[in-house]
Design brief:
Keywords: ATP-binding, Nucleotide-binding. Residues 5-228 form the ABC transporter domain. The protein is α/β, with parallel strands linked by helices. The protein has a domain at 31-53 and 72-76 and 148-246: Rossmann fold (3-Layer(aba) Sandwich). It is 36% helix and 25% strand. It contains seven helices and ten strands. A six-stranded mixed beta sheet has the order 6-7-8-3-9-10, with helices on both faces. The longest helix has 23 residues, at 224-246.
Length: 247
């Protein structure tokens, strides 16, 4: 089966700064792929390119067999941004039911999405009264209510307590087991071990594209954070060597 997402030689500039520097990668279907890297590394820009809302300089992005941003993908792709994308003057339940209606879904599906993100007890609260972590989960419920084939989640666990983080990751894997493809970004390296596959990005370059076990084996360490540090040092050394040869 073909990959859900295929990126080839993607270059993105913002002003005079090159944010993505020729990235090529793939996101396998029916798995949880982690997009990890420090803040400012280009994770959000790559995700925006996948959902078709980012202007690119060159390269291609294919999503579910179609060019990223194609109109027919709107009902097939769910996207959770870091900023809240729901209505503060509606309750959690009302938001979920509104987005469900846009996808032709009923109240039962909306209420189930709210429960799945741990907000059943807060379903009647106005979104404007929620904590930051609760608001993020309410946005997540609205992103999932249409049962998309591909879900792109930009740091969905930020601000969540450890128990809720574990519950959300369990839900992500349940979705993947049912056939949904998930791309989940994080700057918290301990979440890498929860993923089926990893994309490590730094300063707009892809440093690794492999399974957690393969990353550990390639670097000779069990700790993924230390493994990433070794990959980053090796990449930087390779860039310095290339630069000396070019000069």
């Amino acid at each position: 089966m073909e990959d859900a997402v295929v990126v080839r030689d993607l270059v993105v500039d913002r002003g005079r700064r090159r944010v993505l520097q020729g990235i090529s990668c793939a996101v396998p279907r029916g798995a949880v792929t982690g997009l990890l890297g420090p803040s400012g590394s280009g994770k959000t820009t790559l995700m925006r390119a996948l959902v078709g809302v980012q202007t690119v300089r060159s390269g291609t992005v294919t999503v579910l067999g179609r060019p990223a941003g194609a109109p027919e993908l709107r009902r097939r792709v769910g996207y959770l941004t870091q900023a809240s994308s729901i209505y503060a003057d509606l309750t959690v339940r009302e938001n979920a039911r509104y987005f469900a209606a846009l996808h032709g879904r009923g109240h039962a599906e909306a209420d189930r999405a709210v429960a799945d993100v741990g907000l059943a007890d807060a379903a009647g609260q106005l979104v404007g009264t929620l904590s930051g972590g609760q608001r993020s989960r309410a946005s997540l419920a609205c992103a999932l209510v249409g049962d998309p084939e591909l879900v792109v989640l930009d740091e969905p666990t930020v601000g969540q307590d450890p128990v809720l983080r574990a519950d959300l990751w369990a839900r992500f894997h349940e979705m993947a087991a049912a056939g949904t493809t998930l791309l989940v970004s994080s700057h918290v390296m301990d979440e890498a071990a929860r993923c089926d596959r990893l994309l490590l990005i730094r300063e707009g370059r892809l440093i690794a594209d492999d399974t957690p076990d393969a990353v550990r084996a390639a670097t000779g360490v069990n700790d993924l954070e230390e493994a990433f540090l070794r990959l980053i040092r090796a990449s930087e050394a390779g860039q310095r060597h290339a630069g000396r040869e070019a000069s």
